[in-house]
Design goal:
It contains ten helices and 21 strands. The protein is an alpha/beta fold and 453 residues long. It binds thymidine-5'-diphosphate and magnesium ion. Pfam families: AAA_25, ChlI, Zn_ribbon_LapB.
């Protein structure tokens, strides 16, 4: 077979294609495919003869205790990591430019260093003086972090190999270049190769390596998704512009629960932890108003209450608007279809706007009932009781399915002053005094009981 001279690679997800296309079939991104020299395999690199050496194999039994995890003391970060940093692990921290990744990781580096870990921070984006100035501004000038500004992978690896730190932070992976690869920094092949080298270094030397990756909008720079499969833990730093809240969310974690979140607030003095996110997300709630429903959710191991807000308006468009922020829009379409088909409540000719207050993203199917309640409350122009939370999954038949951890959700709601809950009939709840619980088997009876329709 003739060897391809070039490959077409998607900069968003790293998939390779035989020819250029405007849209990547693998991840659906537009304008992300670029032509690149393939990572290949020069002549003679194939497996023509078996000249490798045998890999030493061993059993599963071990006497060694697992190495202790390093705690930063930033509780929100330690929890998202699954209970501290695992030595020798590779962590990717992705996020939009300007969201606060460098700030978070500089604070993390200082926290690890202050708790006795050897921490090295390599900046490929800013000069040492700039990082130092930021550290001063954050009040971290005295933390024993060792700082370097470099983009050449070979020099970085040499430094790390000599220093053998406990934690190495590389900001960012898109600025690094390896002299082994003939491609510009930030290209898929450079990002992949440099990340691979650093992950290998982490495993071999027991240094925890944290890689920063910018989420890119235009196609010329490879995004963090390209290295997701190589690392142990993938964290994304999210937030809405205009909100000071930032959420660090675990998307994948070999050493802890995925979907765990840490909540931070961006202040003039850096990121500060938010210990009680429910109170924060509900803080802007005023008088009970139509279109608002409080969802008792679970993020990772922690219950979090959020407010789902809906607005319904007559539409002048042939296909009415469905604007959804912070929720899965496919899920919302399904709920609208179920309301129409099973409960005979049409939304045709109406614009629908849905939003989660505070810039939070909710991915749980358990939010279905709260979404439906917000939609109905907006449509009927009738407010839900102010002391009421909801959760439950809606199936296509219109039945309400129970969801996990009902008691944790209810306890959190109770703690925040809610005294009523609407949930699926089959939910098992024991021992919650003082909470009025309304159960509904399906969406139709929920609509009948709550809105008297
Ligand atoms: P930064 O950490 O540089 O973002 P990233 O590394 O993800 O690109 O954060 C930049 C933003 O954070 C910038 O808009 C200013 C803001 N910021 C604060 O509000 N307070 C602070 O103390 C710091 C250091 C930054
Ligand atoms: Mg940065």
């Amino acid at each position: 077979m003739a060897k391809p001279t070039t490959a077409f690679t998607c900069t968003a997800c790293g998939a390779t294609h035989r020819k250029w296309a405007g849209k990547c079939d693998a991840c659906g991104a537009w304008n992300s495919i670029i032509e690149e020299a393939p990572l290949s395999q020069g002549p003679g690199r194939g497996l023509g003869t078996l000249k490798g050496k045998a890999v030493p194999l061993s059993g599963l039994a071990t006497q060694e205790a697992p190495p202790p995890r390093a705690m930063s003391g930033i509780a929100e970060l330690d929890r998202v990591l699954g209970g501290g940093l695992v030595p020798g692990s590779a962590i990717l921290v992705g996020g939009d430019p300007g969201i606060g990744k460098s700030t978070l990781l500089l604070q993390a580096a200082a926290a690890f260093a202050n708790s006795g870990q050897q921490a090295i921070y390599i900046s490929g984006e800013e000069a040492s003086a700039q990082v130092r100035m930021r550290a001063q501004r954050l009040g971290l000038g005295d933390a024993p972090v060792r700082l370097g500004a470099e983009t050449a992978l070979r020099d970085i690896l040499t430094t790390l190999d000599a220093e053998r730190p406990d934690v190495a932070i590389i900001d960012s992976i898109q600025t690094l270049w390896s002299d082994q690869i003939e491609a510009a920094p930030g290209s898929v092949s450079q990002v992949r190769a440099t990340a691979h080298e650093l992950v290998t270094f982490a495993k071999r030397r027991g240094t925890a390596v944290i890689l920063v990756g910018h989420v890119t909008k235009e196609g010329q720079i490879a995004g963090p998704r390209v290295v997701e499969h190589m690392v142990d833990t993938v964290l994304y730093f999210e937030g809405e512009r205009g909100h000071q809240f930032r959420i660090l969310r675990a998307h994948k974690n070999r050493f802890g629960p995925a979907d765990e979140i840490g909540v931070f607030e961006m202040t003039g003095g850096g990121l500060s932890e938010v210990a009680n996110p429910s109170a924060l997300f509900l803080s802007e709630r005023g008088e009970p108003s139509p279109g608002s429903a409080v969802f008792a959710g679970i993020e990772g191991t922690r219950p979090v209450l959020t407010e789902v807000q809906a607005l319904i308006a007559p539409s002048t468009l042939a296909s009415p608007r469905r604007t959804v922020v912070g929720l899965d829009s496919g899920r919302v379409s399904t709920i609208l279809a179920v309301l129409e088909a099973r409960c005979a409540i049409p939304f045709a000719g109406l614009d629908v706007f849905l939003n989660v207050a505070g810039g939070m993203r909710v991915n749980e199917p358990a939010a279905d009932l709260a979404i439906a309640a917000a939609l109905l409350s907006a449509r009927e122009d009738s407010a839900l009781p102010a002391d009421c939370v909801l959760f439950g999954e809606i199936s296509l038949s219109g039945a309400l399915r129970p969801v996990a951890q009902a008691e944790n959700r209810l306890k959190e709601a109770q703690k925040l002053g809610f005294s009523r809950a609407i949930l699926p009939t089959a939910t098992k709840v024991e021992g919650l005094a003082g909470m009025r619980i309304n159960r509904a088997p399906d969406l139709t009876s929920f609509v009948g009981e709550t809105f008297g329709a």
